[in-house]
Amino acid sequence: MNAPDTLAPIRLTSFSHGGGCGCKIAPGVLSEILKSSTRMPVPPELLVGIETADDAAVYKLNDEQALIATTDFFMPIVDDPYDFGRIAATNAISDVYAMGGTPIMALAIVCMPIERLALDTIRRILEGGEATCAAAGIPIAGGHTIDSVEPIYGLIVLGLVHPDKVKTNSDARAGDKLILGKPLGVGILSAALKKEKLSDAGYAAMIANTTKLNVSGRALSALDAVHALTDVTGFGLLGHTLELCRGARLAARIAMKDVPLIEGVEELAAQGMVTGASPRNWAGYGDEVRLGAGITDLHRALLTDPQTSGGLLVSCAPEAVDEVLAIFRRDGFESAQVVGELAAGEPIVTVV
Fold it and tell me: Helices 297-304 and 236-248: crossing angle, nearest 10°?
């Protein structure tokens, strides 16, 4: 049966059991699944694979080029179909920037409940994704569609980077500073939206953060003093900092007072506007985190909050901090700031 052109309006988020990067399988469950997976032979050209849970795979093509390949998709985090498409596309493209690369093209992943969503709604989702890809300077060159119970949209994104400029999440060094490019709180805003408690200003802030392309990754890849790079998404700031720690066998210290937050999210979190992914994240890695005496349950909710299309997390030498921040400021990331540091020690995160 074909989808009708018009149907009674249905909130997109009403289809979703979890929205945006909050849909991710909990880190503890994912770890359990992957530890028993069969390891295939790895060719020397595969510079980055699954070993350190990095943002994308990287395959060396020649001495000057390596191919970055990634995929990301999820259920609606907002009700506006155009905004949903923009957010999903921005989030997918971010993985290429997080490897220090430049995106070159995308393929669309489109799974829609054809009998329940109007064709115009589906068209607007795709138009949103196309608009973001146009802003990134890449075409959507194809894709795949299926009839699905829940609306799901995302992209496969390919990019290029010089093999010597690849930035992984596992090369951080003791003494590095940690710089976060975007403020936290997207998951909290999405929880408030689903409960119809989000103000117009809060929605505008949510869209502004989730549709801002992490283009700074391209310039950061050129800096030798930038040792590691990732983006903060579904596992929250704590989870993705832990990935840096595990990859480099280092300890991290985060200063809660320095962590940038989207305006209003503390108040919303205090009212219980927290996603189900936040406690699942804590259950998955909380035993690898040490919370200081002044760190409250509210702080923990903010640090485990799943970020959809979150900011870049940079590990760089102290002398490079000003240059890294200047790159972020040039690209419009005014909230970027130093949030912590790395040191020798057991791979845990301490929050003070």
Answer: 70
Contact by Cβ (8 Å): 181, 307 = no
C-alpha distances out from residue 161 to 43, 70, 99, 168, 219, Å: 19, 14, 8, 12, 11
Q: Which residues are catalytic?
A: 21
pLDDT tens, residue by residue, 222-270: 999 999 999 999 999 999 999 999 999 999 999 999 999 999 999 999 9
234 burial level (CB within 10 Å; 0-12, 13-18, 19+): buried
Burial track 261-283 (b if 16+ CB lie within 10 A, e otherwise)? bbebbbebbeeebbbebbebbbe
Question: What pLDDT digit, counting tens, does each position of 8-50 carry?
Answer: 456 787 666 555 445 555 555 555 645 555 566 789 999 999 8
**Contact criterion met (CB below 8 Å) for 250 and 345:** yes
Q: What are the pLDDT digits (tens) for 99-108?
A: 999 999 999 9
Amino acid at 130: E
- CA dihedral for 58, 162, 229, 186, sign (positive or negative): negative
CA dihedral of residues 77, 82, 88, 92 (deg, nearest 10): -170
Count other C-beta atoms under 10 Å from residue 257's C-beta.
8
Q: d(Cα 41, Cα 314) in Å, to the nearest integer? A: 31
Q: What is the pTM of this model?
A: 0.90
* Residue partners of 184: CB distance under 8 A and separation at least 6: 232, 236, 237, 259, 260, 261, 262, 265, 302, 303, 305, 307, 310
Which residues, in sequence order, are bridge partners of residue 251?
343
pLDDT at residue number 327: 98
Token representation of residue 180 = 């976060």
pLDDT at 1: 42
Burial of 288 (0-12, 13-18, 19+ CB in 10 A): middle
Helix (H, G, I), strand (E, B) or coil at 59: strand
Give the model's pLDDT for residue 307. 96
Closest CA to 68 of 152, 173, 182, 165: 165
Q: Please provide the DSSP assignment of 208-221 as one string.
A: HHHT---THHHHHT
